[in-house]
Amino acid sequence: EESGALLRDLGLPLNDSQLDLIFDRTEGWPVALYLAGFALSGQSDLGTAVKSFAGDDRIVVDYLRDEFLSLSDPDAVDFLTRTSVLDELSGPVCDALLDRTGSAETLEELTRSNSLVIPLDRHGGRYRYHHLFAEMLRAELRRNEPDAVAELHARASRWYAENSDLDRAIEHAIDADEVRLAGDLIWEGFPEMSGRGRIATIGAWLERLGEERVASSPRLALSSAHLHLNLGEGARAAHWTRIAAGSADSSGTGLDPVEADVYLLQAILGTGGVVQIGKDASRAAELHRPDVPWQAPCFLFRGVASHLAGHPERARPLLREAAQRGALVSPVVQALALSQLTLIALDDDDPETAQRLATQAEDQVSRCGLSEYRSMALVHAVSAVSYAHGGRMERAERHARDAERLLTRADMPPWYEAEARIALAGACIRLDDHHRARSLLDDAQAFLEMTPDAAILAAWLKGTDAALRAVSASGGERDLSLTTAELRT
What we know:
The protein is mainly α. It contains 28 helices and two strands. The longest helix has 20 residues, at 455-474. The radius of gyration is 29 Å and the shape is elongated.
């Protein structure tokens, strides 16, 4: 309130949101509020001026330079400007950035002499600069040492990567225009980050890099392909897979992670049928090191291929391994593997196991913030049929709505589209929504024509269609299941 009164005293008719923004930028520092007021005075477009106000404003730069930098010794000024590329400072990272020792003592001294160097803990280990001060220092660095900026960001990226801070490592790699380093880091962290609901963060990094630079890096192209698959954008995923494939080492002389991931992406896209899915996933597993996170989806799609080709006994151990590995590195993989195992349990007429597996997948999707991923449509569809099979109709209907909503927006591989719709149709029959079930089965038939060797899907489609015709003809309900025994009958 006092800040608002102060700014209004300067004749600035700011609304509450603009006042909040200025307060955040100045962190409530009275001097900075006055500087902001003077900088904004007389601006014809006050809203735009408020949004653009920062520490590189001429009034702010002149004041802070005169009051702080001119009174500091050259070594301190050099330390302040060069470390301003960091959002959080510590002795070790500043030492690495400046290729020196003693930064921890320098930070402690600066804290005592400069109120704009702010401790972040009680132990003197972590610090930051006041937002406006940091922006002013970065402006000074760009003005006085423009050639040093990229190298400082590159050093920061390498230090954070070595110290397991992947987010900051990637941010600094992008700021340094180190495209290859950014690609390596994003691709390395993709399985876990995407599985923890951080697709938007990855997308923002790729957008900052731009399509031209993404296309110049095989691993960025691979990351973009995986990103679009998670978003349910199959055509875009196929586009980036082709770009990555053009740079892969197909000599067959050794382990090549780019070639391996191209095979994995081809398995996920599944355009060659389920047998080819298995071959591509197996080749990807051979080319990847045994300990990398990408082995989890390799197990998943080897299991999917075995199951859909009519070999559930081969699929079970592969899918269990995928679920186990996915729990550690990729909840997306874990949820999809559990859903596939749920369908096998329903085929085996084991509703208790099916319900347990479906609930486990559902809990993981909810816990990791994956519910709105279009690639999770299958998980919702399988949950719907599992709950409907167990008589829990309210939960079945909720998952059926979520699955159908995601499917209408998704562009997924043909086997996925068909499987999700057949499972969802089974749920709709039990929910007594025959019209919706018929529409889903008709759509599934079209997708199944693109995957002619999916024996299990063909059997499910035939059995579910027969069940729908029977219940529609009788005008009532009957006991419906997706078990192999009933489908054969």
